[in-house]
Design a protein that fits this description.
By secondary structure, this protein is mainly alpha-helical. The chain has 4 helices and 2 strands. The protein has one domain. A two-stranded parallel ribbon has the order 1-2. Helix 1 packs antiparallel against helix 3 and helix 1 packs parallel to helix 4. The longest helix is centred in the C-terminal third of the chain and has 43 residues. The radius of gyration is 27 Å and the shape is rod-shaped. The relative contact order is 0.15.
Length: about 130
């Protein structure tokens, strides 16, 4: 066996992106719209949940419908080219959270309208009773 040498297998260095054979490949990054959608969805949901304590949360309720739109665009883009981006789970979580925030915001608006109608009705009843 002269001329033949044995070289033991060495695993690639940590974090190297060179597979067997020397060809390189690109690791897909998380889709930026998925991250933005999840941020908007969480902001909208937290804002709606904090409405009894703050008035600014009505503005935060606008974030939930924007999160739905952004999450749908991110999911479509990821599904169209899965090799370019990952993050379908983030986009789905943003979609679900955005829908929950939108539903809660709609219920909150209905509750505010009902309370205002009740107050106006009570005031009208008191004024009519006094006259």
């Amino acid at each position: 066996m002269s001329g033949l040498s044995y070289e033991p297998y060495r695993p690639p260095a940590f974090g190297s992106a060179v597979p067997e054979g020397g060809a390189s490949y690109r690791i897909p990054s998380t889709h930026p719209q998925a991250v933005v959608a999840l941020t908007l969805a969480v902001t909208g949901l937290v804002g709606v949940l904090l409405t009894p304590f703050t008035i600014v949360s009505f503005a935060a309720a606008i974030c939930s419908p924007l999160a739905i739109r952004t999450a749908l665009r991110a999911r479509r883009s990821i599904r169209h080219d899965p090799a370019a981006h990952r993050g379908a789970g983030l986009a789905t979580a943003a979609l679900v959270t955005g829908i929950a925030g939108t539903v809660l915001a709609a219920l909150l608006v209905l509750a505010v309208v009902a309370v205002l109608a009740a107050v106006v009705g009570l005031v009208a009843w008191v004024v009519s009773a006094l006259l």
